[in-house]
Amino acid sequence: MKLLGTSKISTDNKATIIKDVAQKLNMAQGDLLGFYEGDNGNIVIKKLILKPEQ
Fold first, then answer.
1. pLDDT value at position 54?
2. Rounded distance between C-alpha atoms, residue 48 and residue 28, angstroms
3. CB 52: neighbour CB atoms within 10 A?
4. Gap between the Cα atoms of 27 and 21, Å rounded
5. Which CATH architecture has domain 1-54?
6. Regarding beta strands 43-47 and 33-37, do their DSSP bridges make them parallel or antiparallel, or are they unpaired?
7. How many CA atoms lie within 13 A of 26 on its CB side?
8. Residue 45 phi/psi, 5° resolution?
């Protein structure tokens, strides 16, 4: 696994997504991130793609 960068947690538990990660995930303001825990305890962060309501 490759470290892409670091971000500090603020006093109200907010973190900034670093530019390189935001670009790799093709993130834009208002996009949602999902936080997943794997069986081994690792945390994975993914951009959520929401399906439009039908």
1. 60
2. 12
3. 4
4. 8
5. Ribbon (2.10)
6. antiparallel
7. 2
8. -115, 130
Q: What is the per-residue pLDDT across 1-52, written as a single tens digit (0 to 9) for each?
A: 899 999 999 999 999 999 999 999 999 999 999 999 999 999 999 999 887 7
Q: Is the pLDDT reported for residue 53 higher than 90? A: no
The first and second tokens of residue 15, run together, are: 């973190």
Angle made by CA atoms 16, 4, 10, in degrees to the nearest 5: 25
| pTM across the whole model | 0.70
- Residue spans per domain, the chain: 1-54
- The dihedral formed by the CA atoms of 39, 42, 45 and 50, expressed in degrees to the nearest 10: 10
Q: Which two tokens stand for residue 32?
A: 């949602």
